[in-house]
Structure of Probable membrane transporter protein:
Amino acid sequence: MDFDWTMALGSFLVAIIVGLTGMGGGALMTPMLVTFFGVSPLAAVSSDLVAAAVMKPVGSAVHYRQGTINMRLVGWLCAGSVPAAFSGVLLARALGHGDSVENVIGKAMGAALMIAAAGLVLRGYLAYRGRGGSAGDGDGSAEITIRPVPTVLIGVVGGLVVGITSVGSGSLIIVALLALYPALKANQLVGTDLLQAVPLVLAAAIGHLLFGDFRMEVTAALLAGSIPGVYLGSKISSRAPSTLIRRVLALVLVASSLKMFGVAAVPLAWTMVVLTAATAGAWLALRHRAAPRRDTLSSPVVSPGVAGASGEQSERGPTMAA
């Protein structure tokens, strides 16, 4: 087929989300190809992975220059994910089309993503209430302690899922990292996930080039939109406040979860509009409640009573000295 500019525009919008949050590529891009452009599932998975192998390095390069990547964590993740991703492609071919397997994995991922979104909201609320500390906000500056065995296992599971479905290089792994390393900064979480996804997606892409249904015209349209989109999203993510990234990440988690549960495009779009409006409303309400509290804390400094008391003390001072 000819070059599809609408497909390129769709990939541009999805790539902004990938660059901003480190996830959503497979969970959003592949369903977009199948739902809106009529691409067969296998061709969508193959073409999306090849495009992602080019797109991910662009986003991770931005985070690398900003210093928002934990290289030791990337190394342990790749130790498990790279061989598992290629094995996942072979497993998908051995299972045939694997519709039932993808369905089970999709439902399980949908539940995990929804739980992760709820966890992000709860941690943000606790941080606002002053009970979450810096770890709850994801802004702690302390160096995290790497746990090699569970980190490698995360890579293995994520790699297998990516090799079979193209979903998971961001969605599944970033959820597991959130649970295993809650003190990791939000922008470090995104940068680390983007960089570890480069060799992971490359291994899966090579497998699909050899055994899948790669279509050059689809990949070209995806690359035309995704490269500038992921660069823009990564630039915003590397400089944006952690709280903003967490809110966007929670919305993307919910969207990916609903898509995994098979929610159609139009209901999904309206659901996200409502959730976005509700998030903005809740943020404004919290700011409105916090404003009187700040005024109360600052009132003793500027209140006339205190000023008068200070004046009385200053007036007594010379008398006592005399």
Observations:
- The chain is about 85% helix and 0% strand.
- Residues 5-287 form one domain.
- The radius of gyration is 24 Å.
- Residues 118 and 250 are 8 Å apart (CA to CA).
